[in-house]
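Task: sequence design from structure.
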């Protein structure tokens, strides 16, 4: 426990905080670094897999600047539960090994608006094969430390991309990062996850979800939704912007490692593969969410209509897809269709919106009847692609409030529910965001300290 609480270092540990740089909200921020994360070492699991063990919130580091390097219960619970939730959803992610309350009171100004308060402190031990980010490479490039940049790149390939060999291994490595990042974006869009702060220093070189701060799942489907107050009013990191931001961030990484190559033409071509990789995988993902046998060229209009309908109607994303699974494949009276989906509506569609919704459902049912797979396989595909349980912000907020009162009932339930997101065991949580949560701090409004 002393190790997990940051109070004991064994003789075999050599703790360090990493130095890196980054582009934050589209602007070069220069040197950054692990301001409240301390790597204790690596653990060899014995199956050719090593895990980097990192405490987050244990105290100051050389990169804490004017901060204290500690973390509060609120932010620690959010990272602990969500990183595990993403793992069980099947999304590439760092994971959490432990959550320890420190017993200290930590001063925090949640929204940086001059209203600091004391909050209970806590520490998360998070684990990953590596916490290397795009920013580690950007820093060396910015300093023009090309030899160190080359050494870090070769070491990274040797450690985590050993299958890449030959004179062009750096280019092949970048291509794989592009593909992994594109796949990660597809997974985020599949489950409705919004990271909230996609700076280049928060982008994993391994294609993992990293640094859980002002994140959120979508409740109502809104491509312009950002959970991060710091991201307003521009909404750079909104749900619908995430794939394009990933592409932009990959461009920053390409610029950083370009000095290691003989020219830029090939790395630019590798970067431009992102769009095709993402588009192909994204369409396939939507096809699975809809239960299509295969996404055919003539289905693209259906996928476009789906997103247009969701954007305008704004149903609860998770509940809508669950109700779609149970939708009869043959047309029903309009009233029956609207009644079938009523539990997903935050506001019932009327007029042209209702017409748009009903037209989509009719077109979808006609397409499903042309499937070359049977009803059971269609439903199985949809069930695997569409979670029934997501870790909504209002649930997290309620659990944190309970923990701050010394209660852990909801926290315990959520800890179990995140392990079975595709089963019906936790359907008590499959309800729309309550009205009170739409404007409550910690539910709809978060900051980079969250």
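Answer:
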């Amino acid at each position: 426990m002393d190790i997990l609480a940051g109070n004991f270092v064994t003789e075999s540990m050599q703790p360090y905080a990493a130095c890196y740089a980054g582009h934050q909200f589209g602007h070069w921020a220069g040197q950054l670094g692990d301001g409240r994360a301390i790597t204790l070492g690596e653990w060899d699991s014995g199956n050719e897999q090593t895990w980097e063990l990192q405490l987050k919130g244990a105290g100051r580091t050389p990169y804490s600047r004017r901060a204290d390097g500690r973390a509060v219960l609120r932010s620690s619970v959010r990272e602990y539960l969500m990183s595990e939730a993403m793992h069980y959803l099947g999304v590439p992610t760092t994971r959490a090994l432990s959550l320890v309350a420190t017993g200290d009171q930590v001063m925090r100004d949640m929204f940086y608006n001059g209203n600091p308060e004391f909050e209970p402190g806590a520490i998360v031990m998070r684990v990953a094969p590596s916490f290397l980010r795009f920013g580690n490479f950007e820093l060396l490039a910015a300093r023009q430390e090309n030899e160190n940049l080359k050494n870090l790149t070769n070491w990274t390939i040797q450690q985590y991309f050993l299958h890449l060999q030959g004179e062009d291994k750096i280019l092949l490595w970048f291509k794989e990062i592009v593909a992994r990042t594109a796949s990660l974006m597809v997974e985020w869009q599949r489950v409705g996850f919004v990271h909230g702060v996609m700076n280049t220093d928060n982008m994993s070189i391994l294609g993992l979800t990293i640094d859980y701060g002002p994140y959120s799942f979508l409740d109502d489907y809104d491509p312009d939704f950002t959970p991060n107050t710091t991201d307003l009013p521009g909404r750079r990191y909104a749900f619908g912007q995430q794939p394009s931001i990933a592409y932009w961030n990959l461009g920053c990484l390409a610029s950083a490692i370009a000095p290691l190559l003989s020219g830029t033409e090939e790395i630019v071509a590798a970067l431009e593969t992102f769009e095709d990789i993402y588009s192909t995988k994204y369409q396939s993902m939507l096809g699975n969410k809809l239960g299509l046998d295969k996404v055919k060229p003539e289905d693209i209009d259906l996928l476009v209509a789906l997103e247009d309908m969701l954007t305008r109607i704004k149903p609860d994303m998770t509940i809508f897809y669950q109700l779609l699974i149970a939708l009869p494949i043959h047309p029903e009276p309009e009233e029956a269709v609207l009644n079938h989906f009523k539990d997903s509506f935050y506001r019932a569609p009327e007029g042209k919106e209702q017409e748009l919704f009903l037209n989509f459902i009719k077109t979808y049912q006609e397409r499903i009847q042309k499937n070359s797979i049977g009803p059971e396989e269609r439903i199985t595909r949809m069930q695997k692609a569409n979670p029934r349980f997501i870790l909504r912000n209002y649930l997290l907020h309620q659990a944190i409030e309970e923990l701050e009162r010394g209660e852990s009932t909801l926290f315990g339930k959520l800890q179990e529910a995140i392990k079975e997101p595709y089963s019906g065991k936790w359907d008590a949580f499959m309800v729309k965001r309550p009205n009170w949560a739409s404007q409550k701090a910690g539910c709809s409004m978060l900051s980079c300290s969250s």
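The first helix runs from residue 73 to 89.
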